[in-house]
């Protein structure tokens, strides 16, 4: 079964749109998401456009702030500080990666935790690992939503995550653990990787290398979630970290690229923005 993240993301956005339509009557306004893009990286520009488009579909107010690549760190931090203090702003997202002269960690930490729709702030990350209320990073959340939608039982299963990034690998592993999977995290130094991945009932791949996972690395009936967004070195087309054509007949469930995890990330960003809005208005 190929599971369409695109379809599920449309359902989630439609549900959110119904909810947001009630907000002006209840709270006097709609949620406001501010997205900051530094520089002109084409992939980042495309992601930011996707976020604006999804906001529009859901009825969330979106402001995209474009800054030149040579903006100073102090200037960027001052902008974030203004947005933190702006009562009419519910979510702040700084598109990553940032230019080399800017300390990404300092920027992420500068965003008020309650407006951190990405779930990257240390306060949110710590809360996730301590099982306290928090905003969860959008891609890991989208992966769990996809598994649930596909009817995949997580509890008691062996899950293998390839990739240990702060944004995807680590939080995904934690969410799977919280759903009672037995989780192994693999990375570039894992020895005998195929032997480990063949043990997986659920295999999540977030390594960023085109078609890294080959058919021999997957056991029959496995659930395969492909987080990769790569350019095929030969055709230039988008492709995942998984050799989809070879693995699709063998897997019980697999996500395509594009149209799998990517749209779910954006839908979960919308969900997180509504969540931050609701927590802020309910505190008043
Ligand atoms: N760059 C790639 N993925 C992400 C994401 O989820 N959030 C932000 N802010 N930047 C990214």
What does this structure look like?
44% of the residues are buried. Strands 5-4-6-7-10 form a five-stranded parallel beta sheet. A three-stranded parallel beta sheet has the order 2-1-3, sandwiched between helices. A two-stranded antiparallel ribbon has the order 8-9. The chain has helices spanning 5-21, 23-27, 42-58, 73-85, 104-110, 122-129, 138-149, 169-178, 193-197, 244-247, 261-282, and strands at residues 32-38, 61-67, 91-94, 158-162, 182-186, 202-205, 223-226, 230-231, 238-239, 253-254. Helix 7 crosses helix 11. The protein has two domains: 26-117, Leucine Dehydrogenase, chain A, domain 1 (Rossmann fold); 138-262, Rossmann fold, CATH 3.40.50.720. Helix content is 42%, strand content 15%. The model has no long low-confidence stretch (mean pLDDT 97). The longest helix has 22 residues, at 261-282. The chain is an alpha/beta fold. Bound molecules: guanine.
């Amino acid at each position: 079964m190929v599971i369409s993240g695109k379809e599920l993301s449309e359902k989630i956005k439609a549900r959110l749109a119904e909810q947001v339509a009630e907000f002006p009557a209840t709270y006097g306004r709609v949620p406001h998401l501010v997205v900051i893009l530094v520089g002109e990286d084409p992939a980042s520009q495309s992601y930011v456009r996707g976020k604006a488009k999804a906001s529009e579909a859901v009825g969330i107010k979106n402001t995209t702030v474009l800054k030149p690549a040579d903006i100073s760190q102090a200037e960027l931090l001052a902008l974030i500080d203004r947005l933190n203090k702006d009562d009419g702003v519910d979510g702040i997202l700084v598109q990553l990666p940032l230019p080399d002269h800017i300390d990404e960690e300092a920027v992420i930490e500068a965003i008020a935790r309650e407006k951190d729709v990405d779930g990257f702030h240390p306060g949110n990350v710590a809360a996730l690992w301590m099982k306290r209320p928090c905003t969860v990073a959008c891609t890991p959340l989208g992966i769990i939503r996809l598994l649930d939608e596909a009817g995949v039982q997580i509890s008691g299963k062996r899950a293998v995550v390839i990739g240990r990034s702060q944004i995807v690998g680590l939080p995904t592993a934690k969410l799977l653990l919280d759903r009672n999977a037995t989780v192994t995290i693999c990375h570039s130094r894992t020895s005998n990787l195929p032997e480990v991945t063949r043990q997986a009932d659920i295999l999540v791949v977030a390594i960023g290398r085109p078609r890294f996972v080959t058919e021999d690395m997957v056991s029959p009936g496995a659930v395969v979630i492909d987080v990769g967004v790569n350019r095929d070195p030969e055709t230039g087309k988008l492709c995942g970290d998984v050799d989809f054509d070879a693995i699709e007949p063998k897997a019980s469930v697999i996500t395509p690229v594009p149209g799998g995890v990517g749209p779910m990330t954006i839908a979960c960003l919308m969900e997180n923005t509504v969540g931050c809005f609701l927590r802020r208005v309910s505190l008043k």
